[in-house]
């Protein structure tokens, strides 16, 4: 099992300059390597027996460029540009590996036939992280001793260990990254043991969750959590700070100070949202052995007029966090097709057509419940085929009829 623990660093002013210099040099190298790959692609994508009607590059056709050819050229790079000798070699190789992964995601489709976007050239400040692939090994560039992280060619940096590293976990690599409020290190921890998943025949509690914009989610037993709307609540403050930024002379020291204030506000909102997601995920995993959710097309929904609200609740990030927490606890999660969950009646199965404005499900069979509650019941009742569970959140719970939705209030960061 792999975990990532992030800790804040307390570098000196000289070390901060070194870290920023490394980021800028690695950005330039990344752009140069990407230019090599794009040049090779441009010169070789046309068939040998015909030419383009628009334009055609001239000159010798270069050899195919990949990670190995570019990594072998690091020695020549250091001879031409001596400042690269001050960067740990493994960090430069990891920088080229990042480019190689982005390049392959663009050209090679995954198992679903989807490909990533074309790699872009990085502008100043885009690369604000670099990785030491080995930690605490004889030839490693990073060594953690107590609360001191010793980095090759940088020196000893104080680490604020706000929580201990779990026993039995081995630190595989360390990534140094910059955020709006300072420098951090992310340790990738590995444990050889794998949590044992709960046997299917021992599942005692199960639920379906329906996510939404009026309520963050509603469970199959009628509990709901309100949407915190962290971004919308911070909009007025953000707008005021961004107006101040627009009045500054771009590139000046006052501009940089105000830009840092705006970045810190965005970082604060993101941290509030992430903490809320973890609180909800832990509450669900502690309460249920099986959680059924909808496989929504979130990217498509984010292109509608509700884009701001959808991106504010961040369903995709929450579902990833929930699944990760469930794996660590040995619980089960299952994504299902969301079609028909809001329209079909959870009591009799009859289709009850309604618009998004109608928030109450009322069926001729006498079932009158909240629309989201009905959807959560359908997720559990009709979509969990092959699992030994009932349709109402557990093995011993009967289906509720004509009941009000209860609310669960979580204590979140202000």
UniProtKB/TrEMBL annotation:
Record keywords, A-Z = DNA recombination, DNA-binding, Metal-binding, Transposition, Zinc
Q: Where is the Probable transposase IS891/IS1136/IS1341 domain?
A: 194-303
Q: Which residues form the Cas12f1-like TNB domain?
A: 315-379
Residues covered by the Transposase putative helix-turn-helix domain: 1-44
Q: Does the keyword Lyase apply?
A: no
Q: Return the similarity comment.
A: In the C-terminal section; belongs to the transposase 35 family.
Q: What is this protein called?
A: Transposase
Species per Swiss-Prot/TrEMBL record: Brasilonema bromeliae SPC951
Q: What is the lineage of its organism?
A: Bacteria, Bacillati, Cyanobacteriota, Cyanophyceae, Nostocales
